[in-house]
Amino acid sequence: MSGLFVPNRRLFLSTIGLGAAAFTVRGAFAEELVRTPRQTEGPFYPNKLPLDTDNDLIIINDSLTPAVGEITHLSGKILDVKGEPVRNALVEIWQCDNNGAYLHSGTTNRDKRDVNFQGFGRFLTGSTGEYYFRTIKPVPYPGRTPHIHFKIKKGGKELLTTQCYVKGHPGNDRDGIYRSIKDAKERAAITVDFAKVKDSRIGELAAKFDVILGITPESK
Ligand SMILES: [Fe+2]
Question: Distance, CA 44 to ligand 1 centroid (Å)?
């Protein structure tokens, strides 16, 4: 039996070793983080912004009726390539509702649009670079695997437009926009887990998506 433990122990030790190495290279010789790859903006950035553009896409203003879908707590940090937080970054997200309709006059599935889904939201980061949205888990629509669009702005300048995807979704491998990213690390950087929140009685999910901008601390 002891033979079984040896490889495991070796694996464990080498994992620890990697962890320690990661700590020691922080600082002057730190490797740059993988930049979040650009993705197309697509045709459905809202052509008319909703009356409510806050970070809760489930409830529009003071409505009593929430949007339909799997409620997801979507959060992460906006960082530069050195891992430093970017403050005063305006994070915008937009996505289709649970029926595949965008907040756009040219959307598909327009007749089925969930009028209670905000479809678009904004969050301005503070000193920690963190953002937070309450939204729904994205669903597929004709021609696309599920995704959430992101646009990061700072001081009125657009810094990055991208999309994030659901880890393990079978549609990812058939999606031309997703597959346009050839680098495995870049793909991993925009593919996130939508994990069940422990003890949530209504089956809420949590997803974490850090965005690494290709800017230096000086240009912040
Ligand atoms: Fe889209």
Answer: 7
| DSSP secondary structure, 23-56, as one string | HHT-STTPPPPPPPPP----S-S-SS--S--SSB
Question: How far, in Å, is the centroid of ligand 1 from the Cα of 204?
Answer: 23
Query: What global pTM score does this model have?
Result: 0.85
Pair of tokens at residue 22: 């990661």
CB atoms within 10 A of CB 127: 9
Cα separation of 117 and 207, whole Å? 19
Q: Which of 89, 85, 90, 157 is nearest to 127 (CA)?
A: 85
**SS3 at position 174:** helix
The arithmetic mean of pLDDT across residues 109-134, rounded, is: 97
Q: Could you give the 3-state DSSP secondary structure of residue 202?
A: coil
CA 134 – ligand 1 centroid, Å: 18
Nearest to 108 by CA among 69, 142, 59, 67: 142
Task: Give the Cα separation of 143 and 189 in Å (integer).
Answer: 22
pLDDT in tens, 42-87: 999 999 999 899 999 999 999 999 999 999 999 999 999 999 999 9
